[in-house]
Specification:
heterodimer, A: 281 residues, mainly alpha, 74% helix, B: 335 residues, alpha/beta, Rossmann fold, Alpha-Beta Plaits, 2 domains, six-stranded mixed β-sheet, 14 strands, 38% helix, elongated, binds adenosine-5'-triphosphate, binds magnesium ion
Chain lengths: 281, 335
């Protein structure tokens, strides 16, 4: 995780692994405290997806219910929950951009950059704390889902695996958002900027409805983009093979989703660290 | 002489294509002193601090801090420095203690030590009573002091303070001055920036005056005053006699008197001190000009700035000083 580029010289203090881990823990704790001390933040960001859940379920449920694969057990809520878990993961990751932009604009990042701490800790601490936060919101969603009728159709292990995959996706997405936040810098602008990638990915996907009725050019994108792949993987894990497009397997979708996450991390972790090191406010 | 603790050589930094924030700045100083960076808004003070604290890379030059090449080995430099920036960088939702503790931990202190150090510096800076309150309930001045506390927690060898007393009330300002002096007595070296001439005058052992990115003068407060000459006559006369007075001063003092646009005060170097003053008083008397006010002063940094740049420092810094409602520069100068 250290980002030292020059060879070690005498007197050079390279961030050791334990130091890096400790710095990440310090920053993660700091960020999480914000959620605890300003509970309205997390309450508001939980209300929104729950509202989505209720609206979509009761407004569209009746109309869409009949067109769903059998694996959904005839209930739109069963189809919707895996999709919304991924949607929450994507929108929640947007908080990473906001948090970093806020720290930048308040000069906190300047302080961090003048301290002998691991360079990667500010970003890693931010993405970890957002992961924990998103895990909390995802859990809450699931509870509300259960209350209004959601039932997994495979096994409890399948459900847990699905949740884990949503978290992996959320973490990878956070690093894209970190890069955006560092480039945009201004919190208000960052708020707008995160919607640019998130909206098309979430709506041109299988989150709310099956992709079959989309025009073919859109379907080509929708079926293969990371949100759909991850949503389908979750559906396979939670609802069974029958929820997938013909020819797709659960293992295949899970693997593809993990590959997407890995590719995103491979590009955006080094990229955001690079931008962070160069950022001058 | 020991080796300098801070050594800056030919640093230049341009923003965009045209804004030359630093123009070939060189300076150096010894450990254990307070070094003042004095200049009006936009002079380049913050830019120089950002270069020295590894936040900004200049396009040319070299900088050594505490024996470490800042540009070649920023990581090692960060181990030796503390920074309190121009704007308080504290977290509102954390308590004062948590803020300082966090910085201590990021300096590598174990939890227990970070806590002990946090309590120590908070007590020292007069925030012990507020340590357990969330910082969003602090006043602006308290937040600035907290920021200062955070910069001390790692026991840095060299402390960089960007306008440490801006926005702090006059009483707390004296406290901050005392704290800074104590730190230096304890072996820390401090580089601070200020727009306030009296602050540089009273606090700094050496002063660099910068203006528009260039170092225009450097030395002790007394050295700088020497550049103006031994003493200065300051006087004001009725507006209709101003031109005549200026003419007389020009003749007697062999120098161009400066007229302050707003206060209508005239200042002029007095080469022979009291003798020159007597001569001026006689000349004015002979012309039946009665000054409203006249006096002989050792030159202040106001005069230094005026003579170095041809304009008063406060024309630039005045807005902010007025907005702060405190820290007003003395109109009456110390002898
Ligand atoms: N990030 C930046 N981008 C563009 N220009 C900048 C940037 N930072 C500083 N400048 C410019 O560089 C010059 C020096 O700025 P600097 O902040 O160093 O001044 P200063 O002496 O600290 O002023 P003040 O007393 O107002 O704090 C100014 O003209 C400023 O506009
Ligand atoms: Mg400044």
């Amino acid at each position: 995780m250290t980002t030292a580029t020059a060879p070690s010289k005498p007197g050079r203090v390279a961030a050791s692994l334990p130091q890096t881990a400790r710095d990440i823990a310090v920053i993660t704790q700091r960020n999480l405290l914000r959620n605890v001390r300003l509970p309205q933040l997390i309450i508001l960001s939980t209300i929104q997806p729950i509202m989505f859940l209720l609206l979509f379920n009761y407004v569209f449920g009746g109309a869409i219910g009949g067109t769903l694969p059998e694996a959904a057990g005839g209930e739109y809520i069963n189809w919707l929950i895996p999709g919304l878990l991924v949607q929450v993961a994507a929108f929640g990751a947007g908080q990473t951009a906001l948090g970093l932009a806020e720290d930048l604009s308040k000069g906190v990042i300047d302080r961090f950059r003048s301290l002998p701490m691991a360079r990667s800790a500010v970003l890693a601490g931010r993405t970890f704390s957002d992961l924990i936060r998103n895990g909390f919101v995802i859990g809450l969603m699931l509870v509300v889902g259960f209350v209004i009728g959601f039932r997994y159709q495979t096994s409890f292990a399948g459900l847990v695996a699905g949740l884990a995959l949503a978290m992996v996706f959320s973490f990878a997405f956070s690093w894209i958002m970190a890069t955006i936040g560092l480039i945009v810098k201004n919190p208000e602008a960052a708020q707008q900027a995160v919607f640019l990638p998130v909206f098309p990915l979430v709506f041109a996907s299988s989150v709310f409805v099956p992709t079959q009725t989309m025009p073919s050019w859109l379907r080509a994108f929708a079926d293969n983009q990371p949100v759909t792949v991850t949503v389908d993987a979750l559906r396979g894990l939670i609802l069974g093979d029958g929820a997938l497009l013909p020819g797709n397997t659960v293992e295949g979708q899970v693997l593809l989703s993990l590959l997407y996450a890995g590719a995103i991390l491979a590009v955006f972790v080094p990229l955001s660290v690079r931008v962070y090191r160069r950022t001058v406010n | 002489m020991t080796t300098p603790i801070v050594e800056v050589e030919g640093i230049s930094k341009t923003f965009g294509k045209t804004v030359r924030a630093l123009d070939n700045v060189s300076l150096e100083f010894q450990p254990g002193i307070i070094y003042g960076l004095l200049g009006p808004n936009g002079a380049g003070k913050t830019t120089l601090i950002r270069v020295l604290t590894t936040l900004l890379r200049p396009e040319a030059g070299r900088a050594m801090v505490a024996g470490v090449d800042v540009l070649a080995d920023p990581k090692a430099a960060r181990q030796k420095i503390g920074l309190a920036g121009q704007f308080a960088a504290v977290d509102g939702y954390l308590t004062g203690r948590e803020n300082v503790q966090m910085v201590g931990r990021l300096y590598g202190l174990p939890m227990a030590e970070a806590t002990a150090r946090a309590d120590e510096v908070l007590g020292r800076i007069g925030l012990a009573d507020a340590a357990d309150r969330q910082v969003k309930t602090y006043s602006g001045g308290m937040q600035r002091r907290l920021d200062l506390a955070a910069s001390l927690v790692g026991r840095p060898e060299v402390l960089f303070l960007d306008e440490p007393t801006t926005g702090i009330d006059p009483r707390s300002r004296i406290d901050v001055w005392e704290l800074i002096s104590d730190l230096v007595d304890g072996g820390t070296t401090v580089l601070l920036t200020t727009q306030y001439l009296d602050e540089a005058d009273q606090l700094a052992d050496r002063i660099a005056v910068i203006d528009e990115g260039r170092l225009i003068s450097e030395g002790t407060s007394d050295d700088l005053k020497e550049t103006v000459g031994g003493a200065v006559i300051e006087l004001s006369v009725p507006a209709d006699r101003q031109d005549e007075t200026m003419e007389a001063l020009r003749r007697i003092c062999q120098a161009e008197p400066l007229l302050h646009e707003v206060t209508r005060e005239i200042t002029v170097p007095a080469p022979d001190g009291a003798r020159t003053l007597t001569e001026v008083v006689r000349a004015l008397d002979a012309a039946s000009i009665t000054p409203d006010d006249i006096g002989l002063h050792k030159p202040s940094l106001d005069d230094v700035f005026l003579s170095l740049t041809g304009r008063p420092a406060e024309a630039d810094a005045g807005d902010e000083a007025a907005a702060n409602g405190s820290n007003q520069r003395r109109r009456r100068r110390r002898p």
